[in-house]
Design brief:
By secondary structure, this protein is of the alpha+beta class. It is 31% helix and 28% strand. A 5-stranded antiparallel β-sheet has the order 4-3-2-1-5, covered by helices on one side. The longest helix has 31 residues.
C-alpha cells in the first residue's frame, strides 16, 4: 500500500514538474492580457520617430508578443528583433511618507 502512495506522489510530482513551466506563462498571458501605452524599439530603429507604440499583448498559445497600434493594426515581432520594450509606470498602493 505504501508503495502505491509513493508511486502516485512521484508521478504527480513529475507531471507537475513538466507542466508548470509550460502552463504558467500561458496563464499569465490570459490573466494579465495586455499592457496599454507600450513602446517597442526594434533592432533596425533606435529613434523615437520609428518606434512602435500601442497596446502590447501576448498570444497565450504561441507566447508571441504583438502590438496593436492606434489604427487597430496588429504588428507581430520576434523577441530577437527587439532592442527594448518600454512599458508605462504602473500605479501602486505604496504608503506615502507623512513626516
Amino acid at each position: 500500500m505504501k508503495y502505491k502512495i509513493v508511486l502516485v506522489v512521484a508521478l504527480l510530482s513529475a507531471v507537475s514538474y513538466l507542466l508548470i513551466p509550460a502552463l504558467l506563462p500561458r496563464i499569465y498571458a490570459v490573466i494579465i492580457g495586455e499592457t496599454p501605452n507600450a513602446t517597442v524599439y526594434l533592432n533596425t530603429c533606435k529613434r523615437e520617430a520609428c518606434a512602435l507604440k500601442g497596446t502590447l499583448k501576448t498570444n497565450p498559445l504561441t507566447l508571441q508578443q504583438y502590438l496593436i497600434t492606434g489604427e487597430g493594426k496588429r504588428v507581430f515581432f520576434n523577441s530577437d528583433d527587439t532592442l527594448y520594450i518600454s512599458l508605462p509606470p504602473t500605479l501602486t498602493n505604496e504608503p506615502t511618507d507623512k513626516s
